[in-house]
Design goal:
0% strand, mainly alpha, 87 residues
Length: 87
Amino acid sequence: MDSKAMFGEMVTMWKKSMESSLQNTAFVQEQSEKMMRMMMEQGANLQNEGKKIFDECLETMKKSQKEYQNNLKSQMEKLEKFVSGNK
């Protein structure tokens, strides 16, 4: 196997690993969100202001996570093009 093909296989492995990590991160985030929402719904002590702050933080986190995922995917595509020789 020549070095270019080997590097291409490495990039493919990195991409699959990255996608798996992102999926796992999204799953953990969804489960944490469900748990926090259940706690807020069942907790009589939480005021509407607390729920509002939580929703704002959650929205910011989701936006940041999406930007991070898009950036990683974009950089991975550039790396794949570079490895394949298409610039």
